[in-house]
């Protein structure tokens, strides 16, 4: 049995984080939510943009770290403050694709993510994990679902977190974010050639998790 990394990519609200967390727990691996890292930089940008001329100079003032709390899971520490609870706000969500399209931001985060995964044992989800961050990951999954289903899932998520939203607005936001993420110049959202595509529309969380656990088992046996 060999140690592996698992890369899970796909568009917004496709169920990546729910599944990645389950897979990580089942396999005793660490789950890394890279979207939260882009969201943390966006949070910093929104609070400080008046001080910087460009993203290059802004990133010189960012120190981002992930820590793992047994109960709360991944926590995002930005310049010594735990900002995790601020990252899902509508303001951050509306601006994150723009911030994530900036070269200086991606360079900083991609190398931080590669460092996290260098000793294996990581389940990482995002948009460019299988293509750019971990091109040698032993398991690569590209997860998709219809916009309708993704908007319903996000509506439920938001209600649980106390974030106000409507189905129509969420459908529009998800479609806009997909378009932005898929059409940006630097590492756009695209399925890696060797990724296994899973369309989760109508599938249960358990069934998707099982499918990935089987892929992991096959990869470990190689
Ligand atoms: O997964 P999420 O919705 O939290 O991601 C937020 C945004 O961050 C998403 O719109 C695109 C960007 N992102 C990215 O460009 N690359 C990643 N590896 C992860 C997220």
UniProtKB/TrEMBL annotation:
Catalytic activity as recorded in UniProt = dCMP + ATP = dCDP + ADP; CMP + ATP = CDP + ADP
A Pfam family of the record is Cytidylate_kin
In which compartments does the protein localize? Cytoplasm
| Residues annotated to bind ATP | 10-18
The EC code for this enzyme is 2.7.4.25
Task: Provide the GO MF annotations for this entry.
Answer: kinase activity
Q: What Gene3D superfamilies does the record point to?
A: P-loop containing nucleotide triphosphate hydrolases (3.40.50.300)
InterPro entries recorded for this chain? Cytidylate_kin (IPR003136), Cytidylate_kinase_dom (IPR011994), P-loop_NTPase (IPR027417)
Is the keyword Transmembrane in the record? no
Cite the entry's keywords alphabetically: ATP-binding, Cytoplasm, Kinase, Nucleotide-binding, Transferase
Q: Tell me which residues make up the Cytidylate kinase domain.
A: 6-217
Q: Which PANTHER family match?
A: CYTIDYLATE KINASE, CYTIDYLATE KINASE/PANTOATE-BETA-ALANINE LIGASE
User: What is stated as this protein's family in its record?
Assistant: Belongs to the cytidylate kinase family. Type 1 subfamily.
Any idea what this protein is called?
A: Cytidylate kinase
């Amino acid at each position: 049995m060999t140690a592996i990394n698992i890369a899970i990519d796909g568009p917004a609200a496709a169920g990546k984080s729910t599944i990645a967390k389950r897979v990580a727990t089942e396999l005793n691996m660490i789950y890394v939510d890279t979207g939260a890292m882009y969201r943390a930089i966006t949070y910093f940008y929104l609070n400080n943009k008046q001080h910087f001329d460009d993203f290059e100079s802004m990133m010189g003032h960012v120190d981002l770290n992930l820590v793992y709390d047994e109960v709360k899971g991944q926590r995002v520490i930005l310049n010594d403050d735990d900002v995790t609870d601020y990252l899902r706000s509508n303001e951050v969500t509306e601006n994150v694709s723009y911030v994530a399209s900036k070269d200086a931001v991606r360079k900083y985060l991609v190398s931080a993510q590669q460092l996290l995964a260098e000793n294996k044992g990581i389940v990482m989800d995002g948009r460019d994990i299988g293509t750019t961050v971990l091109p040698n990951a032993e398991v690569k999954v590209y997860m998709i679902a219809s916009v309708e289903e993704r908007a319903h899932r996000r509506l439920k998520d938001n209600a649980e977190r106390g974030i106000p939203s409507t189905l129509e607005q969420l459908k529009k936001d998800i479609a806009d974010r997909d378009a932005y993420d898929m059409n940006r110049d630097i590492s756009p959202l695209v399925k890696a050639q060797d990724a296994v595509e899973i369309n989760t529309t109508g599938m249960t969380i358990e069934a998707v998790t099982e499918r990935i656990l089987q892929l992991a088992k096959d990869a470990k046996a190689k």
